[in-house]
């Protein structure tokens, strides 16, 4: 009786009961704790009117893309309306000669690449992964891996239409002398919903992918800048218990170099492979041995090309691989296979960026921490199918970006950044913590405390963000805050990340 009348009163006041909203990992992996409504908007105008309505009702608002983020940092902990962009996905104004196209915020890389390829174009290196929205990746400063070309997606952006805190659309054009642009370039969704993006485009190209195995010492003591910077895009995958790295490079080739149509997949697995991996990795919750075994198996698998023929789906067995730009740099899922997380292979992650000038020092420090764990009788292994991802980003100046320059720390970020991207298996048993749980926490704390480093905005826990604020430039934060106050004076787009970095103090 009482319950009913409370419900009636709540609905009279326009309130609904709150629920969790999930990341791509689904139930058990909340991205928000206090969501009251989720809208599948279908146009920019509808998103704007939903914002006006939520603001009038005193609710918080956050955009929702494909949920390809890792922790509960999307929203604030106050009642929030999620406006999903999946169905706001128009592509228009294709102009290859002028070098641009306009996409709505919910367009995925996958969708844009297909559209452009059919018209003989691509977006260069401004791509991240197949099932992620352009709006979501630009908001959060997402990046590929390159020291030679722009690695951040926003590197290819010419203008952004943002729905501000009043529900009005504002256009911000690329202009490094404008505070609005420098804030919009990596906005964390705090200025509003990125509704439309004008992207640079280029004539379609073929590229190759090559992979070589390097001994750990040759990287730790090598010229890392020289191993990465000559290429269109390049990265390492680190296999700590194997003491080896895979070194992957890509570059453009003349279109007539090869007729091969290579198609990459980083996340496709068969049900059989996934089932075996879940059993092995779950037993690694209690002992190092299965984790070491898993790393050995994963290393062996990753040695071989993770490419199929796009037309026949036949496995490709020899390096190098050739194919169209997007198919080789990103690709997608193989027919009949699913991404690993849809089989219960869930993960934790951590990603920090350091000046590339300090790359050797950082990797050696991490090696020392691995060795200390071995000395304790608890050797570390990479429990992720593709190892530890070591990526790179060319410098790009803005206020909140991971690869910005001229910061108060006095470090040389101008040559770009090295990113330590450390995914690990999340056991589906008990407390879901890892065998070396304390090690993972200590590793993050040590790196944040000992090095100038910047967190990736969707790949870290609240604790890591809190600890990492000291490494951010206070003057850049206050410049961002000034723009934030103009775009969203009432703070309806607040998130815990925005709170932690002091945007609402
Ligand atoms: C398997 C996988 C691989 C990945 N690979 C990479 C990688 O190589 N490099 C890299 O940098 N990152 C990578 N990421 C991280 C990913 O790029 C970011 O988390 C990105 O923000 C996810 O975009 P989304 O469309 O899924 O947005 P969501 O996950 O739905 O949202 C992420 C955040 O962006 C906000 N947001 C979403 N859309 C908008 C919008 N239109 N306007 C304003 N704010 C918005 C949301 O409110 C939320 O705070 C990867 C993630 C996964 C799961
Ligand atoms: C893209 O991601 C969404 C959300 O995680 C999922 O439902 C969908 O199946 C994915 N699509 C592909 C092609 O992977
Ligand atoms: C929104 O779209 C998703 C598919 O992406 C669907 O699962 C969900 O039910 C839709 N929600 C509403 C309220 O229509
Ligand atoms: C590719 O085309 C260029 C220019 O048309 C030509 O010089 C070259 O020989 C061709 N290469 C191959 C492998 O056919």
From TrEMBL:
GO terms for molecular function: D-arabinono-1,4-lactone oxidase activity; FAD binding. Residues 1-18 form the signal peptide. It is an enzyme of class 1 (oxidoreductase). SUPFAM superfamilies: FAD-binding/transporter-associated domain-like. One of its GO terms (cellular component) is membrane. Transmembrane segments: none annotated. Residues 31-204 form the FAD-binding PCMH-type domain. Pathway: Cofactor biosynthesis; D-erythroascorbate biosynthesis; dehydro-D-arabinono-1,4-lactone from D-arabinose: step 2/2. It comes from the Eukaryota. Its EC number is 1.1.3.37. Keywords: Oxidoreductase, Signal. This is D-arabinono-1,4-lactone oxidase.
